[in-house]
Amino acid sequence: MQTPTLMQREVEETPEAVARLLAQSGDQLQEAGRLLRDLDPRSLATIARGSSDHAATFFKYATEITTGLPLASLGPSLVSVYGTPLRLAGVAAVAISQSGRSPDIVALLEAARAGGARTFALVNVPDSPLSKAANLEIPLRVGPELSVAATKSFVASAVAAIAVLAHWREDAALLAAIEALPDRLAEALDTDWSAALEPCRTATSLYTTGRGPGFAIASEAALKMKETSILHAECFSGAEIVHGPVSLVGEGFPAFAFLVDDAARPGMQDLCRRLDGAGARLFAIGESPVGTRLPHAETGHPLTEPLSMILSFYRFAEALSRARGHDPDNPRGLRKVTETV
């Protein structure tokens, strides 16, 4: 029997990690929601990079769809390189980080607070510099993450972000879906994506695509392909992929489409038909009229469903890395740069 990789173990720990987050950081999640209700922000901002930035993108779409308020991603170089003073009175700024130690992420949150923002830190390492820069720390509580690829911390970050949103908006349906999520994530670990293994093992490039919250998940999936399988993967939104990128799709070109059960799904289904017509080897996560459908655990809510999709994808990415002859924990001798995530 093959010894489990660190990545495999950490992916399998995700349902328990999310349950721990909800149980042990529930007070902070509720407090963040109350603070946002009291602030009634005119806009929001996020501060993150890498997988954490994909969690921030997920939060962006969830927030904008739910509230109609704009959410901007602030580039760390605004402060660390350009030294720009920020003017963020009436804004809520949310920083997301596994380590909470990246100097430019910390500096940007400090500048946001100095510029008048109410600041929140979603961070896995307690009492980190980022935590100290925030008005409120929300511990992710996922435990050590030692593989190169961030997995359980990504899912926990996204769960924490939408839990803050749910408490802020007092959204009973979303809160109930989040509460049930650990069980749905456990189901996601049992899905079989082996149909995609051989086409991706021999591929030199592929696309991932989605819209809204599904785009954030597709972005994370593309990163994991590059990070763990040394496989060129690009993510485009379902609206943008037809404006140029589709011209690279030929016979057998792998494409992963994340079709969340929301208002974007009919358009994504049309995109799937177009990719299929161009010759793509299409893998659909969600209901599609064409291609090979890869199973996922349905959660009953469009803001939790993408998280079951990405957990199934993580299981697949770990297997694909090994199939392509790499070590998922340390492909090509990379080391985990915890100070920058």
From TrEMBL:
Pfam families: SIS. GO terms for molecular function: carbohydrate derivative binding; glutamine-fructose-6-phosphate transaminase (isomerizing) activity. Keywords: Aminotransferase, Repeat, Transferase. Its EC number is 2.6.1.16. SUPFAM superfamilies: SIS domain. Residues 32-191, 193-331 form the SIS domain. InterPro entries: GlmS/AgaS_SIS, GlmS/FrlB_SIS, SIS_dom, SIS_dom_sf. GO terms for biological process: carbohydrate derivative metabolic process. PROSITE patterns: SIS (PS51464). This is Glucosamine--fructose-6-phosphate aminotransferase (Isomerizing). It comes from Aureimonas phyllosphaerae.
